[in-house]
Design goal:
The structure holds 2 protein chains of 2 kinds. By secondary structure, chain A is mainly alpha-helical. Chain A folds into 2 domains: 45 residues, no CATH class; 217 residues, MetI-like (MetI-like fold, Orthogonal Bundle), CATH 1.10.3720.10. Chain A is built from 10 helices and no strands. In chain A, helix 3 packs across helix 9 and helix 4 packs across helix 6. The model of chain A has no long low-confidence stretch (mean pLDDT 91). Chain B has a domain of 173 residues: 3-Layer(aba) Sandwich (Rossmann fold), CATH 3.40.50. Chain B is built from 9 helices and 10 strands. Chain B has a 6-stranded mixed sheet, sandwiched between helices. In chain B, strand 4 and strand 5 form a beta hairpin. The chains are: A mainly alpha, B alpha/beta. Magnesium ion binds next to helix 2 of chain B. Chain B: This is NitT/TauT family transport system ATP-binding protein.
């Protein structure tokens, strides 16, 4: 009765609705698109289709990146940029997390603060650059202030929304167990919303990178963005591209770090981040 | 109900109390309307009066939308009555408190705590010393049969197990009145009757008075010492039913129910009540 496996192998096709793909093939396919991209780029340079002054070869960019770090103190610029991000982001979180949690928990706080916060969200942070430069000059403060303004209001709103979505049954259960308001805030609301807070932080950190680059390109003599603007004056496109590459890599690194943090802090969640 | 019979059974502590005792919980002409933005107020319940006695299992039964949850939430202190008064042991109910623990239909396990920590949670809120907390939690986890899972997180548990955690957590906190809103509604049939039997035995062991909501007729008859049947439009107690065919005994197993004479009649009677109530259900 046994049916020969080879004669009647289950249908396997490349394009199949709802069918999963193996891990091996996922990696192979994901890598090949990058190989293809860099291959075409290299080919375009080698065959002279593009002006190498404007489009350096990928190998040239990697080489320049190495030189920047090894001989020209680029690490300092990267360090300054990262410090700006972290400095302003820590301050933004220190304000947004407690405020957002309180707004999401108590309607009185929301009614008082939210009309203010939601109005600010409609103003793109770069609109403040001229006035920030006038107030704070060209030091670190205007950059930190721009990063801060760029993320704080969205962060507050995100955290408020997540907090108000904490299931009411959880809070009511704690109430009927005899919990007082602050006990419930600390032992139910905060732990319930914490994974979502970390997710919001991850998302807003990516936005902070955007504002960092804007700040450094417009008004800075230090940092990754400033290095790229200096390179532009000397037509060093390889340095500009090295800067783009490093910004991308740093963004990726922060994202990976946050995902790792999420796994370590919340082992009780499943892979997708939901209980 | 036959009073002399009840006295004969009193030593087993399973007899239904005579209604001449002081009630444990008492609702007096309670009404509740909800304000709805841009709409007329919704009168959820009107003129609800009934009493529950010490160690009794009292069941609120009725078609959906008749206000069972609203009554229970007011007893829990989660909702303020618009009119009338609610008292527990003669004291007015003014808000939620440890003495009135509630089990919800939706799962309420705290995902960030293990089963043991979940069950200890209420006692932690009430500053029960660590050693006693441990012991009491272990006892109730054992009662609901989850000792093997004491250190597991809720996401590894099935729906029935999560609900057992919620029951253990509430009972370990030693409420004098246990409130349950369709606690087994989300469970499959088999888990459901296992949980019903379990609930009866532990409510008895812990000497807890139970007020429970259901829309399941069989569940009501099996568990109840007293059934308050509620109607819609208006949402109020339509009829108080004592399942007297049980002769004041608590049943331990579901199959005992089937053999008892009088069970069929009661079920038929309640089914008719449900049908009458259901026939005007145009607002579903
Ligand atoms: N928070 C609320 N706001 C407005 N109406 C409500 C609210 N809670 C309950 N109701 C209304 O009160 C009535 C009774 O509801 P409920 O107590 O949930 O009934 P049951 O539990 O018997 O199904 C329903 O008509 C419902 O729509
Ligand atoms: Mg209900």
């Amino acid at each position: 009765m046994a049916v020969g496996r080879d004669d009647h192998a289950f249908r396997q096709r490349w394009f199949e609705f709802l069918a999963p793909i193996s891990r091996k093939w996922r990696i192979i396919l994901g890598t090949s698109i990058w190989i293809l991209f860099f291959g075409l780029w290299e080919l375009a340079v080698l065959s002279g289709w593009v002006n190498t002054l404007l489009v350096p070869s990928p190998l040239q960019v990697i080489n320049t990146l190495y030189e920047l770090f090894a001989e020209r103190g680029f690490l300092m610029d990267v360090g300054i940029s990262v410090a700006r991000i972290l400095g302003s982001f820590v301050v933004a979180c220190a304000i947004a997390i407690p405020l957002g949690v309180l707004m999401g928990s108590f309607k009185a706080v929301e009614s008082f603060v939210n009309p203010f916060v939601s109005a600010w969200r409609y103003l793109p942070a770069p609109a403040f650059i001229p006035i920030l430069l006038m107030w704070f000059g060209t030091g670190e403060l205007p950059k930190l202030a721009l990063l801060f303004l760029g993320v704080i209001f969205f962060l507050i709103t995100l955290i408020m929304d997540h907090t108000s979505q904490v299931r009411s049954e959880l809070i009511e259960t704690a109430m009927t167990l005899g919990g007082q308001r602050w006990q419930i805030l600390w032992t139910v609301v905060v732990p319930a919303v914490l994974p979502s807070i970390v997710t919001s932080m991850r998302q807003m950190l990516a936005i902070a990178w955007t504002y960092l680059v804007i700040a450094e390109i417009i008004a800075s003599t230090t940092g990754i963005g400033a290095m790229m603007m200096r390179a532009r004056r000397f037509l060093n496109t390889d340095e500009i591209m090295a800067g783009i590459l490093i910004i991308g890599l740093l963004g990726l690194a922060f994202d990976v770090m946050f995902r790792w943090l999420q796994r370590v802090l919340f082992p009780y969640l499943d892979q997708e981040g939901h209980a | 109900m036959n009073l002399s019979h009840a006295k004969g059974e009193a030593s087993t502590a399973t007899a239904v109390r005579a209604s001449t005792d002081e009630p444990k919980l008492r609702l007096e002409r309670v009404g509740k309307s909800f304000h709805v933005p841009r709409g007329p107020d919704i009168e959820a319940i009107t003129d609800v009066s009934f009493s529950t006695y010490e160690n009794e299992v009292c069941v609120l039964l009725g078609p959906s939308g008749c206000g069972k949850s609203t009554v229970l939430r007011m007893v829990a202190g989660l909702e303020q009555p618009t009119s009338g008064e609610l008292t527990l042991d003669g004291q007015p109910i003014v808000g939620p408190a440890q003495e009135r623990g509630m089990v919800f239909q939706a799962y309420t396990s705290f995902d960030w705590l293990t089963v043991q920590q979940n069950v200890e949670y209420g006692m932690r809120l009430n500053h029960v010393p660590r050693g006693e907390r441990r012991e009491r939690a272990a006892h109730f986890i054992d009662l609901v049969g989850l000792s093997r899972f004491a250190d597991a997180y809720p996401r590894h548990l099935s729906g029935g197990m999560k609900q057992r955690v919620a029951i253990a957590r509430t009972l370990a906190n030693q409420p004098s009145l246990l409130l349950m809103d369709e606690p087994f509604g989300a469970l499959d049939a088999q888990t459901r009757w296992q949980m019903q039997e379990l609930m009866l035995s532990i409510a008895e062991a812990a000497n807890t008075t139970v007020l429970m909501v259901t829309h399941d007729i069989e569940e009501a008859i099996f568990l109840a010492d007293r059934i308050e049947f509620m109607s819609r439009h208006p949402g109020t107690v339509h009829e108080e039913i004592a399942p007297s065919f049980k002769q004041g005994r608590r049943l331990r197993q579901k199959e005992e129910l089937i053999g008892l004479s009088g069970y069929d009649d009661l079920e038929r009677h309640i089914l008719q009540l449900m049908r009458e109530q259901g026939s005007d259900s145009t607002d579903h």
